[in-house]
UniProtKB/TrEMBL annotation:
PANTHER family associated with the record: 1-ACYL-SN-GLYCEROL-3-PHOSPHATE ACYLTRANSFERASE, POSSIBLE ACYLTRANSFERASE
Compositional bias (Basic and acidic residues): 219-240
Listed transmembrane segments: none
InterPro entries (UniProt xref): Plipid/glycerol_acylTrfase
Assigned keywords, A-Z: Acyltransferase, Transferase
Annotated region described as Disordered, given as residue ranges: 219-263
Organism encoding this protein: Streptomyces lomondensis
Lineage start: Bacteria, Bacillati, Actinomycetota, Actinomycetes, Kitasatosporales
Protein name as catalogued: 1-acyl-sn-glycerol-3-phosphate acyltransferase
Stored Pfam families: Acyltransferase (PF01553)
Extent of Low complexity compositional bias: 243-255
Amino acid sequence: MPRRRIGFWYRFAAVICKPPLVVLLRRDWRGMEHIPAEGGFITAVNHNSHIDPFAYAHFQYNTGRVPRFLAKSGLFKKGFVGAAMRGTGQIPVYRESTDALSAFRAAIEAVDRGECVAFYPEGTLTRDPQGWPMTGKTGAARVALQTKCPVIPVAQWGCNELLPPYAKKPHLLPRKTHHVLAGPPVDLTPFYDREMTAELLKEATEAIMAAITRQLEEIRGERAPETPYDPRRERIEQRRRTQAQTQTHQKAGQTVQEEGLGK
């Protein structure tokens, strides 16, 4: 399957976006040799800053294999941004609607056409306090197992120092370095030709996230936590803590009231 041409809109976006990225960020990019020269594939990338999609797209644009990101559908609707999103072939995600599965189908079709689909398996900016990858969602694994395409794990670090997660103002000085390390394809062959159950997708997703985390460990020169941060588990624990605190306050109030009546 030949590679798709970059096209006008991607080149136009590069003309606009590359100059500020070059000014703001130094580059330490490694692993470009793992980006397939031909055929469809997936890149699975960690997400730790609102600007890292632009910086990562810069990295992959320079490989000659431009990524098709999955992005929320609202960005496609109108204006210049919408035209650019449509023109560059990004894939709209319609959350909580009858079209919710269309992004999955579009990703498979893009891979079958010989394109690269870039996934942020975490689904959002990491909430891990130290910036490590969280547990992943199963979309990338589902497309990979359906198409049996290569999945390239990619770790990045540095945009989060320029613009930390959920921050409103960038830290421009000193100039930050955008580190990218792409690794060899994740071995998902043990999951091929099996019933695509929730457990199978979970295991395949864990294999993808573990590969991304290993790449980030190499960049940072330190070990990640043994258990990835799980937003769902954290929400459950937070509710339990809130309920426990509420019960404690209620008991304390009841005790005070009883003591007052006793007096």
